Amino acid sequence: MGERQQDMQEGFRRLIDNLNGQLRVAMPGIIKAFDPSEQTVTVLCAVRERVIGLTKNIEYIEIPYLLDVPVVMPRAGGFSITFPIQVGDECLVIFSDVCIDAWWADGDVQNPIEYRRHDFSDAFAILGPWSQPRVLTNYSTTDLEIRNDAKTSMIKISNTEINIISPTVKVNGVPI
User: Where are the beta strands (DSSP E) in 36-89?
Assistant: First the structure.
């Protein structure tokens, strides 16, 4: 009886490991291309997939590029904040619970075209996360800043003032 229980436990463990190996939730990615008209990116997943071969050897393989991934930026109420997405920018890739194809094409509420869950083809790229080699220098812990990484141009909002810092400031296209 003990052997049967151990076999069942081992079978359940393998089943759970297999399911976990197929489940996609989120991972860091690196932008490889940006299509500004479609507002999608091509993403290289920044963590390799761990694969156990038939001989039980462990290998790490790169996940193929994720193509036509919609970008996520702050947008609501008829307003948007956009970013000049560049090759090499880092992002967080999240995988939808269901197929997004019909919603992506037509908007509004849709039925899924296919039955799939957490699939590589149903990803979104959230811009903003970064790795330690890319941390911002001179990060303000007291003020809101809209800034370039070099901190040479920015809008800085504190409790008492709004400060615009840039070599050139234009209002309606006219330098002031």
Answer: 40-45, 49-52, 58-61, 66-72, 75-76, 79-80
